[in-house]
Amino acid sequence: MSTPNILEMKEITKTFPGVKALDTVSFDVARGEIHCLVGENGAGKSTLMKVLSGVYPYGDYQGDIVFLGNTQKFRHIADSERIGIAIIYQELALVPDMAVYENIFLGHEIGEHGLVDWNETIKRANEMLRKVGLDINPETKVKDLGVGKQQLVEIAKALSRDVKLLILDEPTAALNESDCDNLLGLLKELKYHGVTSIMISHKLKEVIRIADTVTVLRDGKTICTLDAQKGEVSEGILIKHMVGREINNVFPKRDHQVPDEVILEVRNWTAYDQQLGRNVLTNAAFTVRRGEIVGFAGLMGSGRTELARSIFGNPDGYRISGTLLVEGTERKITHPGQAIDAGIAYVSEDRKRNGLVLIQDVKSNITMANLKQIARRNVVNNNAEIMVARKYRDALGIKTPTVEQLVMKLSGGNQQKVSVAKWLFVEPRILILDEPTRGIDVGAKYEIYTIMNRLVAEGMGIIMISSELPEVLGMSDRVYVVSSGRITGELPVAEATQERIMKLATN
Amino acid sequence: MTVNDLRTEMRKHIRDYGMYIALFVIIVIFSITTNGLFISSRNISNLLNQTGYLAVIAVGMTLIIVIRHIDLSVGFLSGFLGAVAAIALVFWHLPVFIAIPLVLVFGVLAGLITAYPVAQLGIPSFVASLAGWLIYRGLLLLVTLDTGTIVIPNDTFNAIGNGYLPDIFGSESFLPGMHKLTLFLGILTVIWYIFSSIVSRKNKREYNFEVLPSDLFAIQLVFVSALISLVTWILAGYNGMSWTLAIVLIIVGIYSFVSNRTILGRHIYAVGGNPEAAELSGISVKRITFVVFGSMGMLAGLSGILFASRLQSATTTAGTLLELDAIAAAYIGGVSAAGGVGNVVNSLIGAIVYTSLTSGMNLMGIDISSQYVVRGAVLALAVIFDVTTRKLGEK
Q1: pTM for the complete prediction?
Q2: How many beta-carbon contacts under 8 Å exist across A and B?
């Protein structure tokens, strides 16, 4: 073959309704290298890999994929698997209750006439496990292994299929340090055996340690491809390219003084997830003042949402230690209902999954968390409900023909406003907004920002969790940065820059 | 008013009316095929009384399905609690007014027991209630082991399933052969319906809310009033309103009010529509689960009482497969397995549709094997209709 590239993705464009997720992205991977793909949340890394692996079938995107010298038209993941592309997601695709050897050969069982040859399977499984340096009994059930070892089993599974290109999507996000070292070592080892790898990672230190080449994506475009051997890769350079986004969102001005009156204080907050078997938060501490917007920046999976939910009545059942003070009084909150009573409201990150009841109408969604406000002796006053719904519809500019419209028929921005309206109706003192502008258009974003400014002017304290750094910088009075379940920094907005935040977030 | 207005209104609410149209079609078909026997006062009266013990279970099951669960135990629970009622009356010599509340309390307890593994331990309700299905089947056989069928020689108790409201306006000169109290209740209902509709419309107008155009509103008033009058007239022509029907109407009335108008009802539908969102809105999903299963158990007890009273005895097979009939009735009535959708009045209609099929086919002399096939086909059609019209509605 003439070209040294195992993979060339040429001018890939992929659009979702209303959004251009990938815009003429070109991405070349040389044979036998470790190529890292970095970028902020939403830069298009995962979308690009989904195009490559056939999750988005041929015809769903524009551009060409050339793999092993041939233009490929994958219609299904199985097509890409067959010719040697394996993708390992953050959420592992193993069957927890099956043994390691069964998992390794799942879907590619060894045997004849529909009968499985278990002895041969176990023998081959042992070989694969040796290749990835995993010294375990192949009859162990996957659920009895730690996350790090499960990841290695995934890789063994890929190797068993004669993989030529291994794609890892944030493989180290859930791993502890020694498992990380182990995994990175293995990738290097595989490189010497001729396996090409693409690794998506947020942890820049790892990227620098392992990458031969780094490609930076930003806003669905290829920003640059850097060669490590030529010394082009450093943390500063990567961050600069990652965050170079121009601040083209306009933020409404806010001019009021934040009184020095703390309304929420969290000390020494540690949350242990029994299912994952590790701390999702460690010794977090922060304060929120009356009339202040506090931004929480951090990468996906850093623990920002866990922090919000563990404060808001802990619906995930983490084991929590620490102190929570609302307006100077210590509170023990064990259910969202108590959090609401304490004056805290939480607009969730995923409005469709856990924010709204899509099959119900606008008014029922708005009044859902505070029905007693419009009820007498437990009987809901339907007319009062409509009045309340109309009031918030007008106050927040929710575009809907009537308040009896089903929420699922509204646009994303209007759904988000219904979500916010629901929580304003409980009249909270502290409002937690988790990704308040995700998936909504620029106009609706501006309106949400205006609403936030109005609320803090009225004396509410707002916690804003956001993955969009311009938004964090444009709206916050103060910024906390979260990384791996710890608060790694606190910056007054005047001192915060995208680079500083990104450096703390990739710590 | 134009015909178009009517048509758009109809289309908007086709799902709400679908059930009634189906019932109407069934009534017309059977009336023709049985030369009017089906629509006779005697048959309609019987049919509604037969529906009673199924309808109360279907009402409870509706809310169970709304919160995305299922309760398979209630058929045999109903049979078992019917036997308990019989034992309480016959062997423990308890008076009726103590035996009945006692059975209802047992029902609530049984429901809470089913709810415990579901709400506290996250065990699928299918499995938890399947265990109950076996247990109550066993218990029913156990308590009737020595006696076999327990005959209940208690007139007060048996009146629940067989008796009619006494006619306090008994007079032979005026409308002979008609049950005057039933007519009177019917007239009261019509007056109350018209009055409350007008008041609610007036209230809405005061708030400047959208209301039906006045001509459509008038049509609606006339239509519903005529329907109530017709049913009243038919019933009055036989023995009048039965105690069973009175109980069922009261239960449906209460459940309809609670589920539509109260905070509890709203919370039930919120939990059904999106449990995670409900939990994050401060609603305790566990508490709602206990309440709904507890109510289901109580209604199973009531159903057992109605059935035992109707047969004037507790049998070893009472309640067999009743839970599946109730589930079918609820689905014919338009509940959604995806949760959050369904209403108890429609489930009552669903139960009436279901019993009408049995009654009509019995009158036609169709054998039982074909009856199952027809009932199955109707259930399938009802669900297909529901799903397709819902998709239309979502567009």
Answers
A1: 0.82
A2: 87
